[in-house]
Every structure is written in structure tokens, then in C-alpha cells.
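Q: Given only this backbone (317 positions), what sequence would you predict?
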């Protein structure tokens, strides 16, 4: 079975079939579906090795598997969305593990030598992130799920969820329910994501002239969340906003007026109000920005998405 057979079956040119298989983003959706239906009907299979020799592309996008913490890691939803979005654009996801920034950079080098991925998707970005600098210095295509914290000069494309907007919505929800002393349980200072989420809480309280001093930093565990909640309630807090579902679940043992962040399956199971991240959309936008760069098309510099407040408990005092 050849490309010519597929072209005749679909009623298109051989170049169109080649575009569908190698650069699907340049083909109209209706035509792409017709060609793919012909491919499926005829049982045509593409030789990945031959295609890479012909196009100079591996059609692989590399991303690290994140470690699970407290059984509430939401990264699997992002990874699932990334895999689906990449497949729709004619790419496959290459997974790897790493134990730290330097180890991940070593892995980049190894992957480039062994598999030649076309691009990388960075996750868990942080202040002074050397991974982004390493890729940028070598002009390797990449996108990050997470902002380049503290690097205003960074020019690489990125997608992120607006944590400050999320905790602002959570805090507003508690204010509207009648609370005036609202605490915040966060992570240790210096985390770009954690600091961003704390900003939304403090900004909202400050705009209402309410106390912004009821905040504690923790290691992010449920046990630490419970301990922080006990202290904050003792100091007069009547409701709490958590930087994550993990700390919020601990706080839920102390008071029912708690809002978490991430909307994990555990939060849904116990009825915790939480902020859901649009992870499927974030993954799709990451693929879009990266494949736009790979195809030489003009691309947005960044995308900032809003989380959604999922209300499950009545927080009224």
C-alpha cells in the first residue's frame, strides 16, 4: 500500500496525503479527516524511520513525568490532554523522568542524541530555572506549562493558569458568604505558583479593608494543613483558602469553610470546594504554541488561563 493508493481512495493529491501525515496543521480539517479515513480503510502504515529521513523530523515532543505527592497530583490530566492534542497534530509524546534540574538537563542531552525530539514541554517552572536557559541558548524549540518566574526577559512561549485570579474568586466567595477573617494556608515563600496564589487572596482582602495577616506557610502536606488551620482558627479565622487541595483537606478537619486548589478527585469525593484548573485546554495550547514554532508560523508569546471555582459546601458562618 502506497501514498498514491491513499490519494486515489481519498480523491486528493499525493502531496495532500503527505501533508496530512507529516504536517497536518496545514491541511483543512475536512480534508484531513477524509485522508485519515482512507488511511484507516486501506490499512496504510507510515514508516517512522523513512519519514524522519525525508522530513528531518522525529514528530516527538518530550515531557517529564511528574512525581505524585499525597496521591493528589493533577499532572496525569495534563499529560493525557497533551498526548491527545499532540496526536491530533501528528506528534507523539516521549516521556522521561528526572530527579532535579541538572539531571533533567543531562536527560535533554541524552534524548537529543538518541531520539532527536522536535521539541520539549517543560513543567514545574520556578525562579532561576536553568532548564529554560539551557534550551534557549541552543535554540531548541520548547514551551513551558508554567510562567518563567522572575525572568521578565524570557521570550519562550508559555501557558499557565492564573492562580491569583483563582484565589481571588475563592476569597470573594467566602466574603460573599459573610466571612471577614479569612486565613491563607500556603507553601514556603519563593514558590512562584504559591506566591501567585497568595497574591489573589491578599489583594482581595486588602481591597475590602480586611486583615491580610492571617497566613501561614507549610510544607504542603495534609498534616501541615491541619496544624496551620488549628492555629489560624485560634487566631480568629472563620474561613480558610488553601494553596492546594492537599493542605485544604487537612484544614477541612478543623473547619468546613475551606476552599482548596486543583479540584482533585479526592476533593470531589469528600465534598471540598476547590478551584479546577483547565488542564486539557492548557495541554492543547502548549501543543499549539510549540507546533506553531516548529512550523514557522507566528505564535503567541504566552497564554494565561483562568481556573473555575467548583462549589460543594455552604461556607456561611
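A: Predicted residues:
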Amino acid at each position: 500500500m502506497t501514498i498514491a493508493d491513499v490519494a486515489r481512495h481519498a480523491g486528493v493529491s499525493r502531496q495532500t496525503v503527505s501533508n496530512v501525515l507529516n504536517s497536518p496543521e496545514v491541511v483543512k480539517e475536512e480534508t484531513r479527516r477524509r485522508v485519515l479515513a482512507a488511511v484507516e480503510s486501506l490499512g496504510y502504515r507510515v514508516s517512522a524511520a523513512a519519514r524522519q529521513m525525508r522530513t528531518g523530523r522525529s514528530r516527538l515532543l518530550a515531557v517529564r513525568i511528574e512525581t505524585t505527592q499525597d496521591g493528589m497530583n493533577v499532572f496525569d490530566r495534563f499529560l493525557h490532554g497533551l498526548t491527545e492534542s499532540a496526536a491530533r497534530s501528528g506528534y507523539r509524546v516521549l516521556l522521561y523522568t528526572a530527579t532535579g534540574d541538572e539531571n533533567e538537563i543531562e536527560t535533554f542531552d541524552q534524548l537529543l542524541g538518541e531520539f532527536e525530539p522536535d521539541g520539549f514541554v517543560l513543567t514545574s517552572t520556578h525562579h532561576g530555572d536553568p532548564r529554560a536557559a539551557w534550551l534557549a541558548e541552543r535554540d531548541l524549540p520548547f514551551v513551558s506549562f508554567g510562567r518563567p518566574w522572575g525572568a521578565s526577559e524570557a521570550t519562550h512561549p508559555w501557558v499557565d493558569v492564573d492562580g491569583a485570579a483563582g484565589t481571588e474568586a475563592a476569597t470573594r466567595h467566602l466574603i460573599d458568604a459573610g466571612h471577614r477573617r479569612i486565613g491563607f494556608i500556603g507553601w514556603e515563600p519563593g514558590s512562584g505558583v504559591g506566591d501567585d496564589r497568595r497574591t489573589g487572596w491578599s489583594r482581595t482582602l486588602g481591597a475590602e479593608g480586611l486583615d491580610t495577616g492571617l497566613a501561614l506557610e507549610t510544607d504542603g502536606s495534609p498534616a501541615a494543613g491541619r496544624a496551620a488551620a488549628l492555629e489560624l482558627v485560634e487566631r480568629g479565622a472563620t474561613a480558610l483558602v488553601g494553596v492546594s487541595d492537599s493542605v485544604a483537606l487537612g484544614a477541612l478537619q478543623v473547619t468546613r469553610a475551606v476552599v482548596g486548589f486543583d479540584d482533585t478527585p479526592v476533593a470531589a469525593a469528600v465534598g471540598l470546594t476547590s478551584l479546577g484548573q483547565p488542564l486539557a485546554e492548557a495541554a492543547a495550547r502548549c501543543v499549539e504554541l510549540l507546533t506553531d514554532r516548529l512550523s514557522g508560523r507566528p505564535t503567541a508569546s504566552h497564554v494565561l488561563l483562568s481556573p473555575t471555582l467548583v462549589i460543594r459546601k455552604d461556607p456561611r458562618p
